[in-house]
Structure formats: structure tokens, C-alpha cells
Amino acid sequence: MTTVRLPLFPLNTVLFPGLVLPLNIFEERYRAMMRELLKTPEDEPRQFAVVAIRDGHEVAPSAPGLPDPTAVPERGPAAGFGADPLHAFHKVGCIADAATIRERPDGTFEVLATGTTRVRLLSVDASGPFLTAELEQLEEDPGEEAGPLAEGVLRAFRQYQKRLAGARERSLTSDAELPDEPSVVSYLVAAAMMLDTPTRQRLLQAPDTASRLRDELKLLRTETAIIRSLPSLPASELTRAPTSLN
């Protein structure tokens, strides 16, 4: 078992390998994390782990009304995640490689990272200025018939895109070629579909690529059928994809 200890960044979203993650860092615990990452030599990866929040708040209450009018201000690296942060997070996340960490004059940060490797959360340490975690790196097993399944998912995804564009009364503007490597297909489709966080999390932690693709094929067929029966989808993403404040 290969384990690694990294800074931990909990979010109200799921990061997939190969996908880009832009972040606006303003909380002190995450600003401290970025300052620490900037100490890493430029020729070495500046990595942290992203996990989806199961029970807790992405932004800790800092004053009444932020974000809850009845909230009591909290401080510290585990603020908003309860007495035992390990139980506040989903157990499978993704390592993020920060290609850009830019500090603004006000001390906040603009970060652009990319998901790399899936990891399983083993323990969480809240003794420092930010959360750190011991993580087990997860191999990507292709499973059985991943290639044919990827072809089927791509066909279904193109139909889904067409139906979604029609429901929103807009045309598809991108003719970019989609990938054909099964694991890449599985992560791209998982990230591109309009899904809630629990469903995205289920796809991330699928035991192998083929299982993930089978699940996506069912989801694509179901979602396409729903879109086909509706005359329009006004701002539906606002009800199904939470906004990340960080």
C-alpha cells in the first residue's frame, strides 16, 4: 500500500483526475496552505488533496450572517467540520497538482490546479494551521470490456450534449475531439454531466473504469430521456451544482 501525507482541501464538489480546478483562496487556513506550498521548489509538484464534504461547511462561519445568520464564529483548521473531521468527508478524493499559485496584494490567492491520482482518506490531522491527511493512492483498474463501454458512453454523451443544447435553446459550439482512452472518458463524462455531488462521488470511487462507464451509460440514458420530455431547462445547473466559494 502506497501512502502519502498531504495538505487537505475539503470542497463541496468532486475533483476527478485530469480535470482542472480553479480556486479563489481567502480563508486563513487555506492561505496558510498555499504559503506552505509556495515553499516547494518550482521543479517539484505542489500537491494537495481534495475531498468532497459529506457533512459540514466549505466556508467556516466567521461572523454572524457569514454564511448563516445564526452561526457562531469558528476558528482553526477544522472549523465547520465537527469534532472529528475524518467523518465529515467522503473517503475517496483526488490529489491536485497546483500549476499556478498567485498571491494577490490583499493576501488572498488565485490557484489553478489539475486532478491527478485518486486517493483514499485514512486519517486527518488538525494540529497545524491547516488540515493534513494520510492518504492511500488508488490504482485505476480497467475492469472488463472498458474499451467497448467507453465507445458506448461517448455515443450516449454526444446525444446527451445535443439534447441538453436543444433544451437550453443553444447550439453546440465545440467540435473538439473527445478522448478515447477509457479511464479518461470515464472521468471527463463524470465531470461534464449535470450531476449532484453524491452521484459524482459514487463515480469517483467506482472500483474500476468499466464499472464507472456502466454507471455513466445508465445515467446518460436516463438524463437524455428526461431532457427529451422537457421543453426547456431554465438554469437547471443552479439547482444541481453547488457553487464553490473557495
From TrEMBL:
**Signal peptide span:** none
Determine the domain of life of the protein's source.
Answer: Bacteria
Q: What InterPro entries does the entry give? A: Lon_prtase_N, Lon_prtase_N_sf, PUA-like_sf
Lon N-terminal domain mapped to chain residues? 6-224
Instruction: Please name one Pfam family that this protein belongs to.
Output: LON_substr_bdg
Tell me which SUPFAM superfamilies the record gives: PUA domain-like
PANTHER family, A to Z: ATP-DEPENDENT PROTEASE LA (LON) DOMAIN PROTEIN
Which protein are we looking at?
Answer: LON peptidase substrate-binding domain-containing protein
Q: What's the source species for this entry? A: Streptomyces tunisiensis
